[in-house]
From TrEMBL, chains A, B, C, D, E:
Documented EC number(s): 2.5.1.9
CDD domains with a match to the protein in the record: Riboflavin_synthase_archaeal
Name of the protein in question: Riboflavin synthase
Lineage: Archaea, Methanobacteriati, Thermoplasmatota, Thermoplasmata, Thermoplasmatales
One Pfam family cited in the UniProt record for this chain: DMRL_synthase
Keyword Transferase: yes
Similarity comment: Belongs to the DMRL synthase family.
Pathway assignment: Cofactor biosynthesis; riboflavin biosynthesis; riboflavin from 2-hydroxy-3-oxobutyl phosphate and 5-amino-6-(D-ribitylamino)uracil: step 2/2
GO biological process, one term: riboflavin biosynthetic process
Enzymatic reactions: 2 6,7-dimethyl-8-(1-D-ribityl)lumazine + H(+) = 5-amino-6-(D-ribitylamino)uracil + riboflavin
Any one annotated GO CC term: riboflavin synthase complex
Record's keyword annotation contains Lyase: no
Organism of this sequence: Oxyplasma meridianum
Length: 163, 163, 163, 163, 163
């Protein structure tokens, strides 16, 4: 039984954690999910490290929504840098599911983007955990999470591929 | 008996530490507060680490007020990066209560913002320490500290919710 | 038998990993290649660390394609910083083969640039692994990977040299 | 007997180390000062770490003067980040006394600013070393080093306070 | 017998390593130089760490030439941050001799600047290694490497001093 950690925030304006849980459960079995909600994105890295080191999680999905102001962009950079450090110190993947609040035009589109990115990254986390060689067949294929895939230089006219 | 560390600065123009202490005492019991005041925000991370490792604090609330100049913004980024590192090295949360001096229009509003953000983050720290699962019920709900909550994509017309 | 780790992404729009493998095999023998594909560039550092520490790789070639948006540029900086940290913690080289999506005018040129940079850095990795003193003969010679070499201040009129 | 480390540079255009030494000696006793001069600000962090770990210093005062060019501002950020890391790794304070070369209008004002900031931070270092609870009485009081204190939101008309 | 590590790159357009070696040999004795050439500046930090930890070097001189594009400036920042980290982890100085390709007007001036900065930093490295107290006599004197010294606020009319 593998343990998947899920870290999310009260700052975000969409419950991406719910999408992650639904998609993981629709994708496969053999894992248990442990959820840890923190106030904001800068609280995510230590929460992820605690889930890995104190709870034994094998991989983390970290959901956050950086705000639109310059200070929020700096916070996102600091949070991502922390997420990077935790991965390096623990040798565990943390799949970062960040949707910037200004990435979509309106609230409805923002919700749709959040849901889709969360689900597609949940699948990535599943494969990294259970079948790390799976993604090699899509190496260099221009995959995107939350948007249409953009394809590779080999098939520019075909548009993106779906996995 | 849990130990809550409080780090603040002489540079800030509002005594956020006082607000944190008042709010913590109004919220619950079972903890003792240890306060450590340093000159500026870049002195906060090592103070927090000393409180955790030398004094045994279980969580830290770190209050600071970055100045309005570009060099101050860089200092804030460095301080936040240090706060991040201390969390990652110690597996303890440090709740960062930073109010930028140019975040409010006048001194009076600045004081109100400082007081409110300090109090709301004090409550966050309390929950993370005594009931880490508490915040999950507000995951993705668009909570803000110091301002009105902005709500989630599910309830945009209802405006923010209060917890 | 040396072990060369190859990390690449599904986000990139060209299969640089394939170019690296072809060029390494055309350059010499005495090594085995271990490939690990991850979603995006921020997933590369921990993948590289796992290849080094869990699989015993002696050197890593890390291929990625940062997107054209400002947020992508930040991601590239965070990824590179992580790659730097992994090298410092493991004392192993990670040759970073990053091609920015907006570095070439069109998709065809982008593919050519990717292929060429990947191959020239594969050769660099080979030399660092098997003959670390090799590159000293080209110290300060203005070599470039993916573009024409620009030469040194000693031979500005001769243009770049090829190795 | 406490040991205060003093790190400064040949790049700076004012001998802030001299001001620090004078002010420390005028403030109290019970310490010895160990001085280490390096070329530039990016050489400061390792010098501070060597003073702490190889010489046993209890606290460091680090004086530097970042130049006015953009590349100098980046150097200042890197130096400050290194100073932060050394503090976190050693659990010792490093009081950063940086005066940017373009912070004052002319050379004379630059010298006055350097001298004053160095002296006021020397006092901060003294208190952090011998009486860490001293600064709490000035928490949130808008103290500044090198300039007039700006005061708190409680006393905006009174202007800054002096300690 | 001390061991001085020299790290340089094939990307640079001037052989600064040669200048460093010549100047060190003209300055004193009692050391041996170990040279390690890597492709670019981001490969320098781990090379320096390997020279220190695997070869026993006592100090490192690291020569590099960041390119003129924004992405090159980011690379320089990442490289410098890595050089900083290696120093902090090893307690050894790494004297960074970086000349930005756009720092001089033409190729000839670029070469002159490279040669001069490399030589003046070689002398700094020599003093830090054999006589660490030497530089204190020049503390706050406005020394520059590669350019004329700018002097201190005490002697603005005298211009720079030479050491």
């Amino acid at each position: 039984m593998k343990l998947i950690g899920l870290v999310d925030t009260t700052f975000a304006r969409f419950d991406m954690g719910r999408s992650v849980i639904q998609e993981l459960n629709a994708t496969g079995t053999g894992f248990r999910i442990m959820r840890y909600t923190v106030p904001g994105i800068k609280d995510i890295p230590v929460a992820a490290k605690k889930l890995i080191e104190e709870q034994g999680c094998d991989i983390i999905v970290a959901c956050g929504m950086p705000g639109p102001k310059p200070v929020d962009k700096i916070s996102a950079q600091i949070a991502s840098t922390g997420i990077m450090q935790v991965q390096i110190l623990t040798n565990k993947h943390i799949i970062e599911v960040f949707v910037h609040e200004d990435e979509a035009e309106g609230l409805k589109d923002l919700g749709i983007l959040c849901d889709r990115r969360a689900r597609e990254h949940a699948i990535n986390a599943y494969h990294l955990l259970f079948d790390p060689e799976y993604l090699t067949r899509y190496a260099g294929r221009g995959l995107r999470q939350g948007y249409e895939d953009v394809g590779s230089t080999d098939d520019p006219l075909k548009g993106g591929i779906r996995h």
